[in-house]
Write a structure and sequence with these properties.
alpha/beta; GIY-YIG endonuclease; binds adenosine-5'-diphosphate; 698 residues; globular; binds zinc ion; six-stranded parallel sheet; seven-stranded parallel sheet; Rossmann fold
Amino acid sequence: MNSGFTADLRIARIALDIPIAPWFDYRIGPALAESLAVGDWVQVPWGSGRRIGLVLERRADSELAPDRLKDIEARLDDAPALPANWFALLRFAAGYYHRSVGEFAWLAVPRTLRTPASPRARSTPFARARRAARTPATALGGSPPALSRSAAGQPLGADQQQVLNVLIDARGFGVSVLHGVTGSGKTEVYLRWFEAILQRQPDAQLLLLVPEIALTPQLAGLVASRFPPDSVAVLHSGLGEAERARAWLAAVEGRVRVIIGTRLAVLTPLPRLAAIVVDEEHDASYRQQDGLHYSARDLAVAAGRESDIPVLLGSATPSIETWRAARRGRYRLLEMPSRMGGGALPQLDIIDIKGLRGESALAPAILSAITTTLERREQALVFINRRGYAPVLGCDACGWLSGCSECSAWRVLHRAPAPARSVRYQLVCHHCGANSPVPRACPQCGNLGLAGLGRGTQRLEEDLAHQFPGQRIARLDRDVANRRGAAQALIAAVHQGEVDLLVGTQMLAKGHDFRRLSLVVVVDGDAGLFSADFRAPERLFATLMQVAGRAGREVAASRVLVQTRYPAHPLFEFLKRHDYSGFADALLAERRDAAMPPFTHQALLRADAPTLDDALAFLRTARELAEPLCGTEVDSPIQLFDPVPMPMARLKGRERAQLLVESGARPALQEFLPHWMAALRTVKTRARWHLEVDPSEI
Ligand code: ADP
Ligand code: ZN
Ligand code: ZN
């Protein structure tokens, strides 16, 4: 760089981990004037303390008065260099989601590396992370299940080989969609592709994004077993801070080849990034819903573009957005329609439960199917997507229901965890986490006959224990998985044949390969059929296909039984045929007719305040500010909707409302949003607000 020119740029624009502004300006002192560069890590004064910052830009001037500018204290010379492809991704993310580069940058950096060293410390956080004792990459808080996985060197199936050949030939940016049925051997394809890339480029880095590592220890264990232990880094939210800093630094410094991680890992700076795989790309956990909203799947595609490398999106049930891109030829569609080893997909039957009486959760046909399965010493899985004992507590005399005082939601009846023997049950809100004791009498009429209405996982587990005495029953849901290592232990027990009957939520649907499982029962196939959210059927279909895919991986014949009150619903016809493509094409046609995403592009402005009036008033102002920016003519490329309360209006004691903005053309929307955001930042309001681009729930 021309140093004479650089020396004139005496101001550094710096990203700090402080949410009040996207960046902060500091003066560059003489010591750093020649050499300070974009991407450098610095230590700066902040209040009475100091902070670590990242240099985003060097400038000639600042909007701050010169006497308010402070000097950069020091550059952190042992911090890792941050690669250009990372800054390119951050700039894309900031532009696309209308946030600042700094917000995305600091989200990506582990906490220990964001914290300035105390002046007395003998070493820096970077030095400590580099020195930290290595823990094996498979240490995920529990031991990986002992599995007789097919090791490398088995020959690939014909479909796998064909897909692999296409991938190996890929050069530069391009997105491929691997649509492979459950059990088609997608993982093996990912690993062979990685191996092939490493053969031709030994210093390459390969990123594998997975929905939730704690639930797929098999996958992490398998990857770790296929590459030298020192060459794999695992990045997920369950790691301790030191462990996370160590793995992150090894990745950033190019010392590891394969990086497996959950959604946040997409923001890891990887200087030698050569390919990205997003496994189960349709999974909702790729979306960050709190704070900074982003889709890790979409950012993975952007990262591929910025690094000019291939991206692979794998799923048995691709998201409708991905499916459309594949159908239009923007993404390349690769199909693996059959199971490995020629195993058949399970036979799927729809069980009409219109006549089923309230007391029994399962139809007689299902009870006898479970009996038969257990007699054959095979395993059965009973799926219900509601945790807790019963969804709500109610009074049969006056109709009182256990509402949450803070949210527009019911408090769910839960059996208390074992140690609290005196309180057997409690009421818990799944939205704000508040819990309360179960009232002894109805708070409204004093009636003593309060009862849980309906069923969650805990009650179903209890029912099954009565109906199938002597069988080993295990439950997996968020309550169980929150205990560290519990989910892995349970999954390992299933693999080892220590469980006969498995009850659980969609946590059981994700990627597990249970070999003796020959029956899957879906208790409530209707949840989501008639939801107000237009994405509900897509989610229901994906969940049902995924959970059905757990059956029959290694047994000769397997069945899936789905209980419903609407057996004639067209969704079930596609499901019975395992016909994802047919379902997705039909859904795309519907969305096209109704001009819904992915045929239109959306952004949602959400506001919350102590009163609904405040939230709505802000949104009305926002709408007024938007009108002159997008034109009010009928043919305007931007449609503004009216502010409305959110479907669940009250959360954690705040009232929430939203304003939808839509456009048939993404560029028009992206051009409009920054002007609108700038106008909104000048509004004085008691409401808190944020923008969601491509909202997943409306
Ligand atoms: P998917 O992720 O597509 O649902 P998996 O990757 O879990 O499928 O693979 C299903 C099963 O097939 C696994 O037990 C895996 O070890 C096995 N498998 C994959 N590829 C091969 C192969 N080429 N030969 C034999 N078994 C294989
Ligand atoms: Zn009552
Ligand atoms: Zn609540």
